[in-house]
Amino acid sequence: MKFRLYFLSFIVCAIILPSTAFAGGKTDTAEKTVVVYTYGSFASEWGPGAEIAKRFQEQTGYTVTYVICGDSGSVLSKAIAEKKKPRADILLGINAFLTDKTRNAGVLEPYTSPNLDKVVPVQIMMTDDHLLTPYDWGYFAIMYDTQSKVPAPQSLEDLTKPEYAKSLVIMDPRTSAPGLGFAAWTKAVYGNDYLAYWKRLAPSVLTMSHSWSAGYGLFTAGEASLAVSYTTSMAYHIRYDKTDRYQALVFDEGNMIALEGMGVVKNAPHRAAAQAFIDFMLTEKAQEVLPETQWMYPANTAVPLPESFKTVPMPKKSLTISGTEAEAAVDAIISILEK
User: Fold this and answer.
1) Which residue of 1, 127, 260, 314 has the fewest C-beta atoms within 10 A of its own C-beta?
2) Where is the chain membrane-spanning (predicted)?
3) How confident is the model at residue 14 (pLDDT cuts 50, 70, 90)?
């Protein structure tokens, strides 16, 4: 999950080379590396990428080369474009809504890590055959500014009440994972009546931003009382802003689960290194880096959570729908909002 508020400006995928890539003397770096396609925030200066690469190299001897491809959709698109001659070993950051598209693209091969069943609970497994392996997870949520003039809503339906007119920031489901997550959430709760819900909700929407960063920035600037994000956004504010002003809301009807996964590229140039990377990403040594950099829960249940997570509410009910269902709802939702 992205958390520092910033805008990505990548037009093409950018490569972050390991620090050893420019070392002098004879080297077999090409055979002792793993190439990971991922999204911008994972490999950014405040993300977990650098520390994970360092620890992975210390344990295995492999260096990590990150290729930044904007968002998770771009990660998949680049792999598809290179399908006949793969350059990547790992795709990292494929969200649950891209699972069907990833499988149909045929760019990954199943890999069952020996660490998987020991540490990852079955309810967050992304695929039965382990085409994708989860490394972090969380819940989509409505974030509430306790200093606003409206009461905290208690359900998705509450958001449609007149008192919340122009109070909610959402993200475009075509360009934002939280945007698509919220669309999926409404579909999971309302089923075939989801479009009627969106018609009721439309007056409450202040704006639909292109990205999570832009939308959440409006919320924290005091422009809106409510915003779509993750329950663990609350942990970030506790850790870095030293405040519990921004509260994550969990609803009785349940919250949509958010999953991020990784997979081994089919015909990867460095297959053994790719499998070693998956194995390492599930260890405590890698997983302990994630909570306060990704601002998500680690997939490894043995990893203790930092203090900032202790007051983050946990939904009593987890909701899921397929990526195909979620994508199918998008165009109709957009047409309602653009009227």
Assistant:
1) 314
2) none
3) low
By three-state DSSP, how is residue 207 classified? strand
For residue 323, what is the domain's CATH number? 3.40.190.10
Alpha carbon 174 to chain centroid distance?
A: 15
> What is the number of domains present in the chain?
2
Strand extents, DSSP E, 39-150: 63-68, 90-95, 108-109, 133-145
Half-sphere exposure of 53 (CA within 13 A, CB side): 24
Instruction: Write the Ramachandran bin of 166: left for phi over 0, alpha for psi from -120 to 50, otherwise beta.
Output: left
Domain that holds residue 62: 14-137+258-305
94 and 18 housed in the same domain = yes
- Consecutive H or E run containing 229: strand 226-230
Q: 90: closest CA among 294, 332, 273, 307?
A: 273
Q: What is the pLDDT of residues 183-201, one digit of tens each?
A: 999 999 999 999 999 999 9
- The answer to whether position 8 is within a domain reads no
- Quick check: 321 pLDDT over 90? yes
Q: Residue 7: its pLDDT value, please?
A: 33
DSSP 8-class letter at 234: H
Looking at residue 162, what DSSP letter applies?
G
Q: Which residue has the tokens 């994708």?
A: 132
Distances (CA, A) of 293 to 49, 203, 227: 9, 35, 21
**Cα separation, 194 vs 13, whole angstroms:** 36
Q: Could you tell me the two tokens for 188?
A: 């999971």
